[in-house]
Design goal:
The chain has 13 helices and five strands. By secondary structure, the chain is of the alpha/beta class. The chain has two domains: 93 residues; 180 residues, CRAL-TRIO lipid binding domain (Phosphatidylinositol Transfer Protein Sec14p, 3-Layer(aba) Sandwich), CATH 3.40.525.10. Helix 3 packs across helix 5 and helix 3 packs across helix 6. The protein is globular. GO terms for molecular function: phosphatidylinositol transfer activity. This is Putative CRAL-TRIO lipid binding domain, CRAL/TRIO domain-containing protein. InterPro entries: CRAL-TRIO_dom, CRAL-TRIO_dom_sf, CRAL/TRIO_N_dom_sf, PI_Transfer_CRAL-TRIO. Pfam families: CRAL_TRIO.
């Protein structure tokens, strides 16, 4: 691997990670590396110690399960190529301002993704998924060294049942939980109306317990909501839709310019990994990445989907718990 890529893979929170992990956990990271086998430079950048630890955490540090999950992610990334999606690929889907990354972060540095349910006008599931993946990749690109997670802010003002799609929610849940483990820090559902609750009851079965527990319903007429939002955000940066004081309207032209600049950053990062001088000549064929589920590793079926498929998803059985309020 080139020196530049080595630096990329060991940058930021990687240095902090080595301090926070126990010897046993570090040993498990090494075990996962052995199980996933030889990687290209591009895959090696993705499979940093921090990344492997997220897969391990999501599987309660079970090495076999984490390895299977990581292999499936590598297969998906190899075929779907999320890092190659550009603003121009999703601009038409994004033009309503239904989902975007504002030019501020939470107080702890976590990037924010805003979703406005009343601006949902997608015509195809494929394009909607591509836009979601683009937003996730961009938010991750902008993580500070001491953070690994993203905050979602979901604005329910003007919500109607036509604003939501079960198929879209199903695919987002699958992609987020299987290909972006430990990336969601918190999902704030702001002023969700009563008519949303039946839909959410259907969605709950798609969510693993950890994902479910990161969903927080807050209401502008609740006295604790202001404290919650003030604890998380600078209210002078936050939009009025979330109780903030920043009345500046979202400007799509300015946002598009910023995203194209972000695309250059993404391109610079990954083209280094994909250059002829740095790519490993020992990359396993794609078939060798296909999962062989060990009988003693997991009884849960992991769907082999190289790209999101509307007719497939993971169903997770768990005990029901109360929504955080």
């Amino acid at each position: 691997m080139s020196e530049n890529l080595k630096k990329t893979a060991s940058d930021g929170h990687e240095k902090m990670l080595a301090v926070s992990l126990s010897q046993e956990q570090q040993a498990k990271i090494i075990e996962v590396r052995k199980l996933i086998g030889t990687l290209s430079d591009k895959e090696s950048v993705y499979c940093s110690d921090a990344s492997i630890s997220r897969y391990l955490k999501s599987q309660n540090w079970n090495v076999k399960k984490a390895s299977q999950m990581l292999k499936q992610s590598l297969k998906w990334r190899q075929e779907y190529k999320p890092e190659e999606i550009t603003w121009d690929d999703v601009a038409k889907e994004a033009e309503t301002g239904k989902m975007y990354r504002p030019n501020y972060c939470a107080k702890d540095g976590r990037p924010v993704l805003i979703m406005r349910t009343n601006r949902q006008k997608s015509k195809t599931l494929v394009e909607e998924i591509k836009h979601f993946v683009y937003c996730m990749e961009n938010a991750i690109l902008n993580l500070p060294p001491n953070q690994e997670q993203v905050i979602w802010l979901v604005d329910f003002h003007g919500f109607s049942l036509s604003s939501v799609s079960f198929k879209m929610t199903r695919e987002v849940s699958h992609i987020l939980q299987k290909y972006y483990p430990q990336r969601l820090g918190l999902a704030i559902m702001y002023d969700a109306p009563g008519i949303f609750q039946p839909f959410f009851s259907m969605v709950k079965v798609l969510l693993e317990t950890e994902s479910y527990n990161k969903i927080k319903f807050v209401y502008s007429n609740d006295q604790n909501t202001k404290k919650t939002m003030e604890g998380l955000f600078d209210m002078d940066q936050l939009e009025p839709a979330f109780g903030g004081n920043n009345a500046t309207e979202f400007d799509m032209n300015k946002y598009a310019k910023r995203m194209r600049e972000e695309d250059n950053k993404m391109h610079s990062l990954w083209t280094q990994a994909n250059s002829p001088l740095s790519v490993s000549h020992n990359v396993p064929p794609s078939d060798s990445i296909r999962l062989e589920v060990d009988s003693d590793a997991s009884n849960e079926k992991i769907i082999d989907s190289s790209v999101p498929k509307p007719d497939q998803y993971i169903s997770v059985t768990r005990g029901d718990t109360n929504v955080m309020a």
